[in-house]
Amino acid sequence: MIRMLTKKDRDLVLTFASDRPAENLFILGDIEAFGMEGDTITLWGDFNEQGELLSILLRYLGNFIPYARDPDLLDGHTWAKVMLESGQLKHFSGLQNLVEKIIPHIDVPILKKQLCHYAKRDTRLPIDQTLIRKDVKMLFPEEAEKVVALRNSIFTNYTETPSMLQKNMDKGSSRTYYIERNNELVSSVSTAAETAGAAMIVGVCTKKEYEHQGFATSCLIKTIGALTAEHKQPCLFYDNPSAGRIYEKLGFVPIEKWMMVNY
Hints:
Layout: E1 2-4, H1 10-17, H2 25-34, E2 41-47, E3 53-60, E4 63-67, H3 76-86, E5 91-95, H4 96-102, E6 112-121, E7 137-138, H5 144-154, H6 162-170, E8 176-181, E9 184-192, E10 198-206, H7 215-229, E11 233-238, H8 241-249, E12 252-262
Parallel strand pairs: 4-5, 10-11
Antiparallel strand pairs: 1-2, 2-3, 3-4, 5-12, 6-11, 6-12, 7-8, 8-9, 9-10
Helix pairs in contact: 3-4, 5-6
Domain N-acetyltransferase: 134-263
InterPro entries: Acyl_CoA_acyltransferase, GNAT_acetyltra_YdfB-like, GNAT_dom
Protein name: N-acetyltransferase domain-containing protein
């Protein structure tokens, strides 16, 4: 039986999803930020005859994310019907083995489909502090334009503005560590979508002329250390195999591929 979830179901949903904080980073983060119901967010749950929760579906604006502890208990046909009847389906994302159970039942043309590797790091793993350079600094929110300028010089189609980044830093869902030369950022690592139990690592970058000096690794390990101290599990997306090998050396292990679909 599928029904819409309300704030009365908050503890039930958090218990259901919090055992895998990295896998459910976006679901948990949206619940923390927006609650359980409203114009921005809607949650549904699928229950068996005994009243046990089998799977959930989150809508954040036009994006939908499903989750089930056991993929075999996820009803792809029914969840597809919920998404279509909402009239708000624009984006669909989640763990590949869950998303692929629902996609065949959505009779809407797909504009784009993308797969990324998804990895996490156990918070109990030791951290080699000797790899952290002494000149790694933490960015203040009012300095957001510095890291945005660095990313714009490295990443194509980067869209985040200084005000957007500062807003996220002010509310505690993002932080940045960096190294600078001549009063200019040359390498940085940030977090995004931080929740009580996990955080997404993003924006790992170094200016070309400063590559292969351990700058990004130092910023990354500093970030991992800060998150671990707060019992937040670091996780990240990547699609570059060489980047994946670097992350594996730092203790990240694959979760599963993350699938993103645009309609």
